[in-house]
Amino acid sequence: MEDLRLLLRGLEVFAGELPAFDPSAAPDTPSELFTEWLLGAVAAGVREPHAMTVSTAGADGAPTARTLILKGVEPDGWQFASDGGSVKARDLAERPYAALTFYWSELARQVRVRGTVVPASAEASAADFLARGAGARAEALLGRQSQPLADLAERDTAVRESLARLEAEPDLVAPGWTLHTVRPESVEFWQGDKERRHTRLLYVRDAEGAGPGAGEGWRRQLLWP
C-alpha cells in the first residue's frame, strides 16, 4: 500500500499547456459559459467531452454516482435520460435533485451543476429514446438495469432478442424512459493551475433578481481555491 501511495503522489497533474480563464469576462449566464467550455473541449480533442458524473440520493440520503452522456443544455437546464426502473430514476422519484460534474483533464477544467430535476414530456422523452442507436435501444427495452445477471451469455441472448423485436417494431419506446432536466440553482466553473492558483467562479441563481432580460437572475462570485 505504501508503494501505491508513493506512485499516486508521483503522478503528474495539469500537464501540458492550459487555457486561460478571465472570470471578469465571463458571460452573464452559466449555460453560455458552459457551452464555450464544452466547445473548447471538443476543439481540443478531449475524449467524450459530453460525459458527466450524475449524483443522486434517495430518501435515505445515501448518495449514488454514475457517468452518463449529456443530452443537451438549454437556458433552463442540463439534460440527461434514464430508464424508469433504474436506481437514479428511483432516487429522483424520492428526491428530485441532482448534481452534475464535468471534468476535462486535458484542460484542467471542471464544471459542477446542482439543482432540481424536472421530467420532460412523454413526447420529448420518446423522441430522445428513438434518437438512440439500435444497440442502446435494444438494451433499454429489456428494462433490467442494475438487476442481478446470471452470466454474460444470458445478457447477449436477451439483447439479440430485443434487437430482433426492434427490427419488427422500429418505433418501440421503452416504458418509463424519461428525459430529465436539471434546473440549476448553482453552477461552479473551476480552472486548474500548475502552481495551484486555481480560479473558481460560482453562478448562483438569484430568485429575487430574476427577470426577462438576458443574464438576469444570476449572481457571480469568485471562490478561494
Instruction: Note the gap between the termini.
Output: 29 Å
Shape category? globular
Low-confidence stretches: 209-215
Mean pLDDT: 93
Rg on CA atoms, Å: 20 Å
Overview features:
225 residues; alpha+beta; Pnp Oxidase, Chain A; 6 helices
Write the layout of secondary structure elements.
Elements: H1 2-10, H2 30-43, E1 51-57, E2 63-69, E3 72-74, E4 77-82, H3 87-94, E5 97-104, E6 109-119, H4 122-130, H5 134-142, H6 152-168, E7 178-191, E8 199-205, E9 218-223
Antiparallel strand pairs: 1-2, 1-5, 3-4, 4-7, 5-6, 6-7, 7-8, 8-9
Can you put this structure into words, describing what you see?
Strands 1, 2, 3, 4, 5, 6, 7, 8 and 9 form a 9-stranded antiparallel β-sheet that branches. The protein starts with a helix and ends with a strand. The chain is an alpha+beta fold. It has 6 helices and 9 strands, in the order H-H-E-E-E-E-H-E-E-H-H-H-E-E-E. It has one domain: Pnp Oxidase, Chain A, CATH 2.30.110. Strand 5 and strand 6 (109-119) form a beta hairpin. Mean pLDDT is 93; it is low at 209-215.
